[in-house]
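TASK: fixed-backbone design
INPUT:
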């Protein structure tokens, strides 16, 4: 198995984010591939992450599109990466795009072979159990949209510092009612999962049933 990084958001100046990055690059320079959550023809969001990773001396980052520029022939190159970055964005639409391109099986294979998956915000949600937290927020009910990579048996809630009290209470109620564990992170914080062990970095709220 590989390693999973759940970032709420990549905020360089926070201690939690710096610690996550230190752990991510502890083995030296890495080859990174970037998968966008949405159409990014102008490469605006991709360019932001190129600049982010350039701070660590990484210049060549592969762009692997799920939309109009999707190229199945690039999958082998994608799998040769050390790190695959799943970008921030709408987790429901991201899940739909990954499943539409059958990339869930590709990413599972990458992880099982020891690859590192980095998820940021909506990208981090794809690593978890489901997208149900965001279906609650958008009030959508399609079972198909629940699907994620399901690499861990918990759900991840990014941007905890931004959500309203009402929505946070709904998440607490959901966790208690369903027995689901939810890890909620403020921007700049996150968690690392490797070999069944979870490391919380920064201010993480754990929501679960007390039973």
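OUTPUT:
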């Amino acid at each position: 198995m590989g390693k999973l990084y759940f970032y709420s958001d990549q905020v360089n100046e926070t201690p939690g984010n710096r610690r996550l990055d230190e752990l991510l690059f502890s083995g030296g320079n890495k080859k990174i591939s970037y998968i966008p959550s949405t159409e990014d023809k102008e490469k605006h969001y991709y360019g932001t992450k190129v600049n982010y990773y350039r701070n660590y001396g990484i210049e060549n980052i592969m762009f692997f599109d799920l939309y109009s520029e999707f190229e199945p022939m690039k999958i082998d190159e994608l799998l040769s990466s050390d790190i695959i970055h799943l970008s921030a964005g709408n987790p429901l639409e991201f899940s739909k795009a990954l499943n539409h391109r059958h990339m869930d099986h590709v990413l599972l294979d990458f992880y099982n072979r020891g690859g590192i998956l980095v998820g940021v915000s909506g990208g981090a949600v794809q690593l978890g159990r489901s997208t149900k937290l965001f279906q609650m927020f958008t009030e959508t009910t399609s079972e198909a949209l629940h699907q994620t990579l399901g690499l861990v048996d918990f759900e991840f809630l990014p941007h905890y510092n931004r959500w309203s009290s009402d929505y946070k209470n709904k998440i607490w109620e959901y966790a208690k009612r369903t027995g689901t564990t939810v890890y909620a992170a403020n921007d700049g914080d996150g968690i690392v999962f490797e070999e069944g062990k979870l490391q919380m970095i920064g201010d993480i709220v754990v929501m679960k049933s007390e039973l």
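COMMENT: Strands lie at 3-7, 32-35, 61-63, 83-86, 116-120, 155-157, 182-185, 190-194, 197-201, 204-207.
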